[in-house]
Amino acid sequence: MKVVPSRSSEWVRPVTPQKPASAIIEIDHVSQVFQTSSRRDHLALSDISLTIEERAFVSILGPSGCGKSTLLYIVGGFVSPTSGAAKMKGKAITGPGPDRGPVFQEFALFPWKTVFGNVMYGPRQQGVRTAEAEAQSLALIEMVGLKGYENFYPKELSGGMKQRVALARTLAYHPEVLLMDEPFGALDAHTRTRLQNDLLNIWERDRKTVLFVTHSVDEAVFLSDKVVMMSKSPGRIRQVIDIDLPRPRRRSELLLDARYQEYVVDIERMFDESDEAGSPP
Amino acid sequence: MMSPADLARRAAPVFACIGLLAIWQIASLALKNDSFPTAIEAIRAIPDILGDKEALINILASLRRMAIGFGVAVLFSIPLGLLMGRSRAVAAFFNPLLMIIYPVPKAALMPIIMLWLGVGDITKTLVIFLGVSLPVIYHSFEGAKAVEEKMLWSGAAMGLSPLQRLVRIVLPAALPEILTGCRTGLVLALITMITSEMIARQSGAGNILFNALDMGQYDTVFAMIIIVGAMGICLDAAFERIRARLVRWSEPQFDLPLSFS
Amino acid sequence: MTARLLPTNVALGLVPIVLVIAVWQGLVSSGLAPAALLPPPGAVFGRLLQQLVTWTFQQEIAATLFRLFAGFAIAVALGVGVGIAAAANPAINAIVRPIVRVLAPLPKVALYPALLLLLGFGHGSKITLVAADALFPILLSTYYGASTVEQKLIWSAMAAGTPRYEILFKVVLPAAMPSILTGCRIGLVISCIVVFLAEMITSTDGLGHVLVTAARTFQAVDMFVPLITISLLGLILNGLLGTLRSYLLRGFPEA
Predict the structure, then answer these.
(1) For the whole model, what pTM was predicted?
(2) Topology (CATH) of C55-248
């Protein structure tokens, strides 16, 4: 497998030093231009290059409007870049596929299906045999902590529960990469913390590659191996920071950890500086 | 300044008209049916109808009844709908009655109302009034119901009386929905007008249509259909312009009418 | 709270209906309206019950219902099909949109004479008229529902490996269902109205024809009976559709 050299590669360090990690997603000089309603071109993403290692938890952090979600959609294959290309395991991404599973802020559950029906959707679509799919789905629902809610409809669940279902639905078709688009953005602070903990616990089990979009600095630092800081108009990568904190992480311990605090403060300071510099509109 | 894309979108309905007339022309040529004149024959018959003084008076009388029925219905229905939307009790009071009246064809009340009031203008106008009222009430009701409660609280805090709140907050906030109802009502007024004249068969556009059918003047029948159709399309387009002006502030709405009889 | 509120609301709703019947009875009893013009409500409802059990009247209802369902079914099939296709495919949209713009505000009853000439005086012309009138609300609300399906629902299904053409049936159609059913509800009421009118204008059977026959012979009582019948049919069909709706939309909020 050929690793395309990219701007960020110098920052990349293997997550598990014992065996060298290989790149799973390569983003190569991607730019995205949108037309605004007044028919003017808006450069949402400008020449982004980024390599994501297998089994890494990578956050894309930036202010709203910096194109971080667009970047995620390009990796998902939902949006094609205006120029440049994204690759998954060396193959160009041309559309969505079950190797990359999205989890959206809006949950995007099928309202006409129950919790069980939503989780079953992927395996059925993949042609998994019914008995097997059912067993797996039930196990997943239990794993995300919703045992007993199998026959509930999404409208009967709270926001946090909906996002748990959405996660289970995506995990059910075994994607190699999880694409999480501000998944906890619509939740209250308490629920958010619980889901962050649970997400890490689930992630620890099989360490899938995660690409996680957020605008919360401490969420990014708490969860990630690597934080990609983006700046706005046009959306560019400012800096990529490795988060060298031990795992498994406990939030209560981490909050007292001087290194954690340092990461958070450093990142926030960097964003403040760029705000003061004031990029022209 | 209009871009070519805008121009194409505006001209599309014209092309659609021409296309539909062309299909008609081809179909009638292919069918070779005596009672199915070609589009060109039908269009040729239009000047004859519009040139005939009596026919013209008939059509204008129809339009007058329609305008009166529509106007009175709108003036009556909007306040009722708004009240229903803001007061549960008023809604509970009127809803069942309206539910019962809803599936009754209003033009079918013609024979009964004719018994009481005769075949004159009052009967036909009353029927148009009934036909227009329901959709306008319904949409005003839905519009008023959807008005943000907090907007009314702000109004109350500013010292507006309940009536003032209804006129100065609920009415404008519900206006997009009300106008959707009015648009439906307008098409409905035309439909009820034609139908009532088809049933009463005494005067008006609907009467010309069916008399021509009885007398076997098929090109007149089809010419009248074009005239009535054009009335519907023009009234709707005119109303849409007014609507777009009045509710410029609202979210761009679905720009197709939901007409029904 | 609701349990106490509901009977109050029902009672409140019955008031105007009772009032209408009372005024009606009052008009007749006081002699203000001669019974030949306004028969007493008792006589009308008695006649209705008497008619409902007769074979001939049931035949009339059956004729009306047949035309109503046939026309409505065609309208649903065409409206949902074309509406979804127009929402999914820009080329189809470019053709359908202007045609709908022209045809939707056209008063369809005016086409009835043409339909009579082309399809004859039988079922065909009436069913076509019903279908033509019920079509547009269904088509428009389907189109509206299908073109406002949340993008991320579609993305979620695509990521799970759903091919593009299956998205239409597995996501767009169910997601547009609330809107489609709203259109169907309007279409159903229209079907009731139009079938009756068509039967009034020309027919040899059906409820509309019953009304016209009664009107010709000035039988006031018999004029009310078909009107009340069509109103009842409308209520029943609307109720059935409402039941179907709450079953199909059991997962949707506020359904």
Answers:
(1) 0.85
(2) MetI-like fold (1.10.3720)
